[in-house]
Predict the structure.
Amino acid sequence: MPFAPLGHQARTVDFAAAARSQFKIEQYLWPGLPAARIHKVDHLRFAMTLFHLGIDVSKAKLDCALRLTNGKFRCKVVANNAQGHEGLADWLTRHGATEVHACMEATGVYWESIAQFLSTRGLTVSVANPAQIKAYGASRLARTKTDAVDARLIADFCAERNPPAWQPYSDSELALRALVLRLDALKTMRTQESNRLDVSRDAVRQGIQEHLDWLDQQIKSLTKAIKNQIGTSPGMKGKKALLDSVPGLGERTIAVLLAFFSDTSRFDTSRQVAAFAGLDPRQHASGSSVNGKPRLSKVGHAFLRKALYMPAMVTLYKTDWGKRFRERLAAAGKSPKLMIGAMMRKLLQVAFGILKSEKKFDPALHNA
């Protein structure tokens, strides 16, 4: 007798007889069974198997775990380059994995190339926050952490949680993001070298000064390249003009916002945008004894929070709408640090709303 889950009666089905009538496979699936993908073949419909692929990403390699329908795994390690990506595609084909939902963590920038590759091959790709995968592993009391184990964990997470599909970025977005991140890295490097110059020995001072001169040249060149990228990309020039209308946003911050939020269809609401940057509030309260102060969750892109900190300071103290915002929070007894975080979130949400509506900044619409 076929296996029957608790509370359900097993049935033996004559599919040949069913096929002669109006065949509906849904009536033979157990209640609560995860929905399978249904494909129509002539007048019959059959459930097509959906494989789940977990990928643990690192700079040099990809640890892949293909979750089969019986719960077992097939594992493979490939190089994180174009040749390795093609090898992964061939490996999936050999295993008959035509319908695949792949999932990986957002690990730096190392995941972008494989996600882009799989997406162009027609696979469903999900990119999860590493904190989400870590919490999922903790919920299963996972005691071992290796790349191979993490790949299986990600595959199980993908099968159980069915995360939303990731949308690939356009070439112009990828180019602008690379330029923006490189500029930030060079500015950080210049600050480090500048701090070393004053306390350096005579033997190395000239080398540090030469490095600073080179960094200044590269920063100037990158700044020009970012302007050209925005000016020559379809749609970005108009979006930059919209963001220019927000008091407190400068050219560098606008470039960062366009690099991450040029395509507003990736987010449904401004709250999702704030959560993406880790600027959503986190409360910690329980019973009558635990009542912590709300803080920023910081479960999001740290670079965005870094890019918005100084614009928030300028907006709060140098612009009319920011001053009114600060006075309103001060009257409510909020601390200066909380005001900065609130303005960071406010700037991001206002910028998203402007890009979404394609209307310039209006103080009356933003309680300013």
